[in-house]
Design goal:
Elements (H helix, E strand, L loop, with lengths): L1 H31 L9 H6 L5 H50 L2 H6 L5 H4 L4 H5 L5 H4 L6 H21 L6 H18 L3 H4 L10 H4 L1 H4 L4 H9 L5 E5 L9 E5 L1 E7 L3 H13 L4 E5 L24 H4 L1 E3 L5 E3 L21 E5 L4 E5 L4 E4 L4 E9 L3 E3 L3 H4 L3 H5 L1 E3 L3 H11 L4 E5 L3 H14 L5 E5 L12 H13 L2 E4 L4 E7 L2 E6 L4 E4 L1 E4 L3 E3 L4 H4 L10 E2 L5 E3 L2 E3 L4 E5 L3 E3 L4 H15 L11 E5 L5 E6 L7 E6 L7 H8 L4 H5 L26 E8 L2 E8 L5 H10 L6 H5 L8
Parallel strand pairs: 3-4, 3-10, 4-7, 10-23, 12-19, 13-14, 13-19, 14-15, 21-24
Antiparallel strand pairs: 1-2, 5-6, 8-9, 9-10, 11-20, 16-17, 17-18, 22-23, 24-25, 26-27, 27-30, 28-29, 29-30
Helix pairs in contact: 1-3, 3-8, 8-9, 14-22
Amino acid sequence: MLKCRTLWRTLAPLARTSSTVCRQNARRAGLNNGRLPACVPAAHMSTAPAGGGRENQLYVLLVGATCVGGAIYAYRTVKGDSQRYQDRIDEISSRPLKTFTEEPATPTQSEPPAAPSPAEPSPPAPDADPADPPSAEEPAVEASPQEAAEPAAALIVEEEPPAAEPAEARPGVVAEADEPVIEASPEEAAEPPVVEPEPSPPSEPTPAELTEPVAESEPPAAESAAAEPAEPQLEAVTESGDASPASHKVSSHTPYLLIGGGTASFAAARSIRARDPGARVLIVTDELVPPYMRPPLSKELWFSDDPSVTETLRFKQWNGKERSIYFQPPSFYINAEELGSAENGGVAVLTGKKVVHMDVRGNKIKLDDDTEISYDKCLIATGGVPRNLQVIERAGEEVMKRTTLFRKVEDFKSLDKVSRNVKSITIIGGGFLGSELACALGRRSTESDLEVIQMYPEKGNMGKVLPEYLSNWTTEKVKKEGVKIISEALVKSVVSKDDKLEIQLKDGRLVKTDHIVAAVGLEPNVDLAKSAGLEVDSDFGGFRVNAELQARSNIWVAGDAACFYDIRLGRRRVEHHDHAVVSGRLAGENMTGANKPYWHQSMFWSDLGPDVGYEAIGIVDSSLPTVGVFAKATAKDTPKAATEESGTGIRSESETEHTASSPVASSAPSPTGVQHKDEYGKGVIFYLRDKVVVGIILWNVFNRMPIARKIIKDGEEHADLNEVAKLFNIHDD
């Protein structure tokens, strides 16, 4: 651009002069011939044999000479300007080197004392003349735009030698940040992002921070670690497989921030890294362990023969294969303090920290230790907290100490210890969790002197989900596991008396026990809604999100805490593992720009031991009309056989990756109605609303969920559900 402007300024006067000379010559030639140029015929100037022919030749010769001379002048002028421009650039680029060689004492004076350095930029003298020493040598500094960019860049190169001199002490790092301020303070604000002098910002807290890592490792390692981070560092806790947090430094900014350390967060992190391989993802969780799967806490872990299962957290699936509850080993994650400088990005877990405040306008959060972390995009996957009965909360501290709200790894470890040291445990709740724990503890009661009691307000186990006949069958199954069932039980009060807990029911019954497990539902964790200004659904609870699971700009919600709109079933909130996997995966994709709507019908499953299990999808509510089609079960119609076929105990991990193709209906004859209760070996239960299937339970029928999902997605009215049941091949041996 500069060269074009210079060329135009040079050629414009020449063009104007040339045109003026042409007009004057034409007028002069016309006067010599005794007539005006306007009256001269064009043919006369070129074809007349005598008279003005010689003058015309002179005119052409003069104009040609003028054009040639102008071209030669323009060429020499442009070439000269180019040479002068290059000389000027070379002169400017070499000037900072002269400054450094002439004034070596200036930076060295600021290095030893760390305190005087901030005060030195304050005098106005350096600000008035940014080129301080060079101004005496080169007074004619005209190219201010180039000079503002070039000398400062050269100054950064000169800072490296002084920074290497005080190698024995960290104050040298402070001097490194101060040097640019002394020589070119007005330009310093513009230069650091260009040349990456990012070690300078952390130079202020570095002396105070060095004392902490030194205690963990040898001084050389601490010194090099302090020099690595490119951003200000804060104290925090990184991920670890044990329950003891370790003190580290974590970057004050992360591109992707995931609040919550559950299934949804891990699925989102994996999805983000799949779409953006160099992404830096930070997971913040109040638990002391990295992300893990929750279903085994109430299922397979209780059936383990390993006495150290509470420490290893490894279990055998129904198919006999062993695995850990953790999604990935600790080596999968990188240290939180290394996340900011990781060349290829990675996933770091900040354990033992709770987010207490969220500033959505400033794109930052505050932890419970007042640490602030900014982000570019954030996912809220805070899950939920177990509900408790008000009568228990009002019963006093002694009752609360002997009550377990089952949700986390610590709860599993605590209840396992309690079950080995007490004589009686009472489980309040007849839903999925309560029934699973009842079966698990009931199996243990056969091996010890433990009494297991389960009470709930419904008539049978999972009475809010299963139709009455199947709920009653399930209740008998639970009783066979050694569990004492108390149905239609409403708790009136709980007191601690004579080293026992006395549970008084509203119908007058009294139950004495040593420990209580409250499994009465989950409350979505929306503690951040107030500080973040996010909307909470008044009907279902949880953060209200749009079809892309987005609550606000740069904020997404997934898992149990998300209240989303189902395109088929309306607004819902789901509290199951598969929903956490799918919603977390979708949120991660949308955080990287996918903008996909949530259409997936999530499923859930429950196992009452290795022999009875079911999978469900959609709205499964016992208050809805149902149609059940059952068949005789075989040896392969059990959760154990299903996991042997799929190779995983977490069935949704394989199931969610498939979609239903055109299913082939079974050719075997189907029964005409609900079978006898003793023949509920396997079957399909359809839940209807306005004669349309809105929910399906597959009872001991596995690996058929894509078909069920397609039926609900189609939303069609079926005249004969017995024919629909054939799609699941329940009558094939």
